[in-house]
Design goal:
Length: 203
């Protein structure tokens, strides 16, 4: 869930950034075009429009670089972590435990029926079948206890490792030399991710 929260936040940021880039790029082109078409007038407005359009285009390119970096360094790796081998193994433990719990419910219902039958007709055959069912339940509960401990340990180890790696990746990204715009936006994103990490850790 932690990785999914980070991915959703990053994808939302990329989506907003893409719209911002689209609008900003169009505006920069319009400003640059206006300055170029009216350059002969020598007015301050045309020069300012041309300079602003060029500067804004460079800014939007930095936004594009930021979005690409966010996808390649955060979104894609975290999506890959969500289907990694340790996590799939932990999920397998959880699924097996769920199946065993369902089997235990079936066994419990069977024992209840056999007990009723023994009360109605306490013959040796009914008593033997009841004892056999109760023996199966004892073995089944023992197996469930072992599997349950393995499932909890596997899930806990994967969750702890993935939180640690995710946080390290987020913090490490800020240390990469880059433009002031990239740092500003990514610092915001890391603070958001750190808040999510604290929220999940306190659960």
């Amino acid at each position: 869930d932690f990785q999914k929260d980070i991915v959703r936040a990053a994808e939302g940021l990329v989506s907003i950034g893409s719209k911002h880039i689209e609008v900003g790029t169009k505006f920069s082109e319009d400003c640059y075009r206006y300055g170029g078409e009216n350059n002969a007038d020598g007015e301050a407005l045309t020069k300012a429009a041309s300079l602003y359009g060029g500067a804004l285009r460079n800014v939007e390119k930095e936004y594009e670089d930021f979005n690409r970096t966010l996808c390649s360094q955060i979104i894609d790796p975290l999506k890959a972590m969500a289907v990694c081998a340790p996590l799939e193994e932990a999920r397998g433990f959880a699924q097996r435990y769920s199946r065993m719990r369902h089997e235990a419910e079936i066994l419990s219902a069977e024992i209840a029926r056999r007990k009723a039958r023994v009360r109605e007709s306490p013959v040796a055959e009914h008593t033997t079948k009841l004892e056999q069912s109760e023996g199966k339940m004892i073995e089944h509960k023992a197996s469930m206890a072992v599997l349950g401990k393995e499932a909890v340990a596997a899930l806990g180890a994967v969750e702890s490792q993935q939180k640690r790696v995710t946080l390290q990746r987020l913090v490490g990204m800020v240390r990469v030399p880059s433009s002031s715009i990239w740092v500003t936006y990514f610092n915001w994103f890391v603070r958001f991710g750190f808040c999510l990490w604290l929220g999940h850790s306190s659960c």
